[in-house]
Amino acid sequence: MTLTLRALLGATVSLTLAGAAMAETTITVATVNNGDMIRMQGLMDDFYAKHPDIKVEWVTLEENVLRQRVTTDIATKGGQFDVLTIGTYEVPIWGKQGWLVSLNDLPAEYDVDDLLPAIRGGLTVDGELYAAPFYGESSMVMYRKDLMEAAGLTMPDAPTWDDIKAAAAAMTDKSKEQYGICLRGKAGWGENMAFLTAMSNSYGARWFDENWKPQFDGEAWKATLTDYLAMMNEYGPPGAANNGFNENLSLFQQGKCGMWIDATVAASFVTNPADSTVADKVGFALAPDTGKGKRGNWLWAWSLGIPAGTQKADAAKAFVAWATSKEYLEVVAAKEGWANVPPGTRASLYANPEYQKVPFAQMTLDSINSADPNNPTVDPVPYLGVQFVAIPEFQGLGTAVGQQFSAALAGTMSAEDALAAAQTLVTTEMTRSGYIK
Amino acid sequence: MARKVSNTRKAVVTAAAWTMGFLIFFPILWIIILGFKSEGDAIKTPLQVLFSDWTLQSYHDVQERSNYGRHFWNSVILSVGSTLIALAIAIPAAWSMAFVPGRRTKDLLMWMLSTKMMPAVGVLVPMYLLFRDFGLLDSRIGLVAVLTLINLPIVVWMLYTYFKEIPGEILEAARMDGASLRSEILYVLTPMAVPGIASTLLLNIILAWNEAFWTLQLTTSQAAPLTQFIASYSSPEGLFYAKLSAASTMAIAPILILGWFSQKQLVRGLTFGAVK
């Protein structure tokens, strides 16, 4: 009898303990494969120490797969993810749809006012913060100091497109496979169109006027595309119509590019001696302008949002608050050094004397600060976004227009034809979607 | 009577076949090579890649970051499970179509094949909703069902073609000897169609192993197979070729080895009935 009683008691205790273990909340975080995200996965001990009751399951996917996967899940309220890694393009659209949980109630110690205003502005819709920035980026000029010096030129901190053209001409020596400028040419709304849309802003162009009428038939777009094609054809690498971020990164690291205008996050790659043959020869400058008041740089933030359908919003919020906190930056710095801290989200990071020693820190901050997602163009526009238009149709439109411009770079059509095709296809789609009455 | 083939012709044909084979295999070979290079070396020109140092760093990184074992087992369960269920359904179906065809058998076969002609993404949302409502998202059971269904037309078609090559008289004789339908299929038809069934089995395991639309769309972590393991190593910003190559090599190695060992069976099955 006593034995039976003991066995029963033992079983009860075991069940209770098992029950306690089961009270642990598991959240699923969907993310992309880039250095900062992967680094975070290796630093989870700090989070588990602070939140022993939360377990994090990672789902890492290729960017386009992730976008499709997450969009399907959130639109059907599938509930497969509790935290989503999304960009500044998705946040305003999904926020408006009511697909994301507002993060306005993050605790005071999170210090939301410390977030860089440009980044925070891109993630806020009607006063509601719908995602917390994990890392932010703009674009800037990365150039070879040694080649500039050899050409007897100096790169200004805030160059014009004329400065860039002159530098590209001076640094090009095709017999040595040395190309003055490397820019994105691969078709895609996040590839060549990110660059060209940002560049067009500095030329005074815009995708749409206030009545959503496409503007590719204007002089500003013509000047943008003509200059881009001239630079790439004369001073760019061969086959540039297939080059995206990674292809240009590879060319630059092998010393084949005099200049590369692309994401600020590339600065840490090109200055890393383990991968780059030109690590100690790279200088940085703001993206160029034409004196019209806007620079050709973009603004992007990989951010963490919480889908409205999740059953684990509290645990998800705890994770988001930790991953985008000031303390997390310190955790990374302590383990991996300040150069590896996720950049571009918090003002306090740029006030930190240790971080100021990182060679590209100030230029990254200046680039981010010079982008304004709410007023991205010289003339007024009815949309948000610097290198994109925050409407659901833009993914398809951006890629379709990108294909025309990529074809122009490949030489299969003229700049005029590419612009005319862009104007027609965008007008058709915008009329069909009801933007143009 | 065999035709006489000159040695020169034989040498030319052999060289052409080897060149062809090498060209087809080259992308896989290059992936395997890149997996053993550092990220910095993997982006260099082909010659520089070949003569740079070899390293296991990428394999180490992949092993450290991902749960290869879980993805591998999911791939095994999904591909083998779905193929076996498809075979269990398709053998009786193909038997009836081959030996007791009705008036609409040909139409039925065409209709089954036509389901393969629709782009999968066209039914993504209804499928996702069904999975959500039945609680099958990120479950192996749900994916086995989907993979079974999408491969079923191919399995039926392949088996139907093989069964058609078997003389119906043999089955008739078995029936006259008193064999039941079950015994007829199990003990007479199946042993005679082993090469065909084996090649169908192998081909469908390969197809299910490589299926990269539904396995990515309907899984998150617990049921995610090797396709998701590979997808997690492509990066929008940053160097990733070496790690992606290492991950790809790890993902294709099991199926490559299986294909290597069973190539005789596979070729025999695929050419079954071609020469009489």
Structural overview:
The complex is a heterodimer of chains A (437) and B (276). Chain A has helices spanning 2-22, 35-41, 44-50, 63-75, 90-97, 117-122, 145-150, 161-171, 192-202, 219-235, 245-253, 266-270, 313-323, 326-336, 347-351, 353-356, 361-369, 394-410, 415-432; strands at residues 25-32, 54-61, 83-86, 124-125, 128-129, 132-144, 179-182, 257-263, 282-286, 299-305. Chain A has 437 residues and is an alpha/beta fold. In chain A, strand 4 and strand 5 form a beta hairpin. Chain B is mainly alpha-helical and 276 residues long. Chain B folds into two domains: 17-59, no CATH class; 68-270, MetI-like fold (Orthogonal Bundle), CATH 1.10.3720. Chain B has 15 helices and no strands. Chain B has helices at residues 7-35, 39-42, 46-51, 57-65, 68-99, 105-114, 124-133, 140-164, 168-176, 181-192, 194-210, 214-217, 226-231, 241-261, 263-270. Chain B is globular and about 70 Å long. The relative contact order of chain B is 0.14. Chain A binds chain B through residues 28, 30, 32-35, 38, 41, 57-63, 65, 68-69, 72-73, 75-81, 190, 245-246, 249-250, 253-254, 263, 265-266, 269, 274-276, and chain B through 38-40, 43-44, 65, 124-125, 128-129, 131-132, 137-138, 216-217, 220-221, 224, 228, 231-240.
In short:
The complex is a heterodimer of chains A (437) and B (276). Chain A has 437 residues and is of the alpha/beta class.
- Helical/strand content category of chain A: alpha/beta
Helical run tally of chain B: 15
- Spatial gap, N to C terminus of chain A: 85 Å
Q: Which CATH class of the largest domain in chain B applies here?
A: Mainly Alpha
User: At the first level of CATH, what is the class of the largest domain in chain A?
Assistant: Alpha Beta
Q: Quote the distance from N terminus to C terminus of chain B.
A: 14 Å
Mean pLDDT of chain A: 91
